[in-house]
Predict the structure.
Amino acid sequence: GLNWDEVKVPTGFDRTRRPIYYVPVAYMSYKKQDEDKPKMVKAVDAILRRHEDDRVLIHTVNYELADYLASSVSGDMGARPVVTYRTSDERERALADYRRRSSSVLFAPSMDRGFDLPGDLCRVQMIAKIPFLNTTDKQVAARLYTEGGKAWYKMQAIRTLVQMCGRGMRSAEDHCVTYILDRQFLDNLWKADFLF
């Protein structure tokens, strides 16, 4: 029974200053990630080498993937600072460490919202895993399997993905490149027909 009008407002953020590249290197779904983690390590390593002078934020969605990637690539990083955290209590310390050191790399399980990284604090981002909600959570599972639940579930991932992309692009004068590495982006999100 709701009525609304559509309003289109142009963005003040030039898309050439915030490119997003889809580089489908690995499936990070629960069932396939163990098999594909080595592929993800190679891709992360290659992108880090390409941007060796920049601070890089890597969204991992969970602590396990953050630990795995940080420990797998840190041996090849030389003196480049690699930062991650295991609990939400450690997050502020990790962020301060990342901000303090140039060309640092932050493997972040939970920095999709509420963090401001303008300018040189984040020139490159990687999204190692599409942020689907955990289906073992009882509330998520209950909602997923109701009418319209699949659309709701995918929309939550899309909203979080948009938030992730915004961590490094904070003003019209800023610039930040984002790489989406999880193959689920195309297969489970982009091709989704749940809205049309």
Q: What stands out?
A: The longest helix spans residues 33-50. The chain has a mean pLDDT of 90. The radius of gyration is 17 Å. Residues 49 and 77 are 9 Å apart (CA to CA).
